[in-house]
Structure formats: C-alpha cells, structure tokens
Amino acid sequence: MKNKYQHQSRVVQMVPVYLKNDGVGNCVGGFAKLLTKLGYENIIVAINKPDFKVKNYVPYPKYEEKENDVIIYHLSTGNFMNHQLKKFVSPKIAYYNNITPKKYFYDDMPLYLACESGRNDLLVMRNQFFLSLAPSYYNLSEIEKIGGYGQLLLAPLFTKLDDLKNATPTESILKKYDDGTTNILFVGRIVRNKKFEDLIHTFYYYNKYINPNSRLILVGKHSSEAYFNYLDNLIRENNLKNICFLNANGVEDLAAYYKAADLFLCESEHEGFCIPLLEAMLFDLPIIALDRAAIKSTLNGAGVLVTKKDAKFLAELINLILSNEQLKNEIIAKEKERLNDFSLETIEKFYEDLFIKYIP
User: What is the pTM of this model?
Assistant: First the structure.
C-alpha cells in the first residue's frame, strides 16, 4: 500500500502501558503501521518505556501537544493518564478494550484497585471523545449506558494471527501431547473471571464417565498465587488426573498446543473480546463457549454457544462433537467463515476507510 494521501493531522496514540504481545499492544502497533502506510505523521505516547524497539515512541512527560493533533486513546484500566487527558484540547477518539469487574480480583489488590479506578474513570472521561470504538458489541453497550462517548462504532482488533499461523510448532511439545490422547484446551491468563475451576469440573465428568483417555491443557500465566493455589488444591484434594497447567514461551509453543488439541473449551464469565477464540479457529478446533460478556459477539454465529453452566451437559456435548465427524466439520466450517472477518487485509481496509473519514 503506497502513501496515496496527504494529511494535515498528526495522530497521537496514547496508551498507559504499551506491551508487545497483549491485545492493547497489538492494536497500538497495528494502528501505527497502518497510519504510516497511509501517510499520517504519528507517534505513540506511553507512561512506560517499552522493552522492545518502537518507532516514534514519546514518553508521556515529553509529549507536547500540537495544533494539528488528533488523539487516539486506548482505554483499558485505571491510571493517572485518564485524568490528565482532559487538559489536551485536540479532538479525541477512544478505543475501549473493556475493564474487568473488580470483584474477580479481591485477592490481588493492585489489580483490584486498577479495575475499580478504571470503572470509575469511565464516568470521569465522559464528553471528551467525538468517536468511540470497541471490538465487541458488549464493550460498546457498556459505554453507551454511561453516555457521553460520542459516536459509537464496532471496530475489529488488530491481532497477530498471521504470526501464529506461520509459526513452526515446538516439536518437543507436539511429541509429548499429540500422542493419541483427546486434548481439551483453554488458553488465557489464570485469573478468576476465566473460571478455571469450571473447566476442571467439566473435564472431571468427561474424563471419568466418558473418555478416560483425555487430558485438559490449560495454557497461561498466573498473577494471583491465591487463585492458582486454590486450583492446585482443588485438583489434589479430588485426586484429579491429566490436568496440565502450562506456559507458552513464544508463538511456537502456543502453535504446538493448539495443533495438539482436539477441542477448545471456554467457560469464562467476563471477556471484552477473547482473542484465543480466533486462535482456536485458526487451528480448526471446534469451540464450545459459555455465552457471557463479549463471547457471543466474538463468535458471531461460529462455534457452539451454550447459555447454561452445567458440567455434565458440557461433558456430553464435548463427546457429541468429537464423536460425530460431520457435526465437527460443520462447526469448523462456520468458524472458518468467521475467521475471514479478521484477516489483516479486511482489518486494514476497515481502518483505512475509518481514518480517512474521521482524521483529516
């Protein structure tokens, strides 16, 4: 894509913490790359200094507002930047990534306070944005209820699905887990809102009463020792077998876990989008997911969406899908259709049209 536009605006992306491989960071990086392609002068302003090379990075204290600035603010948690934003007079666009309710972090005080202040800041930040974007209808509905966020638009997330698709799966992981055992997979940070205990409960019924040659693979890092210890005790006290907590050190490991899996199970109670659902689609895994928060919006007719949390029912559903090749293939076909909505070409075309329309 050549620089075929001349623009008078400088686009300033503001993000409290810019990390390389999280949902917000992927969006910031995707915007920056596309804005440069489109011929926009653009910078990234963050409180933290990224631990990777970032073109056009400006530390927040050194940012000097210009008359032609348009600010894209990535709203995701409580921080002092939320309160500083009002001092800038430039036109502002919000990208709302969602803020997990504080109740899920009662044993992790820093996260509890960050989520509490983030939710409170949603009220403080009203009437500053002429346009607000979000990756799910669920996220949009939250700021619509609050009011004062300008025009609201559903806007896709930039992801790194291509990196995952092109990665060479780690051979040692494939050798260990792609062994003929039925692998049920979930990928996500080990936090209470993702309800790992419910995944364990469902797997207990599936493994004990339906398929003893099965394994639950849980890939993610934990931030709460208390919650992880609770899960560990749950497994020990009930003498549960074939449940693996694992880390992915890079996309090669992650690709291997997806490739070794037979089905993706999500019983999370709160998600602003849930990128692992797309990753599971990428590896042709049938998906079963609980209809909570943004999950329905993300799947958009793909996968199998269940409304009732019932471990026995879910165990039987897993068996039904994995024992019926035609049904499994029909589910995967719908997921492939949905995945087309998140191709890099589709996403870049969406944002090219949006930027040209709203940013001179």
Answer: 0.94
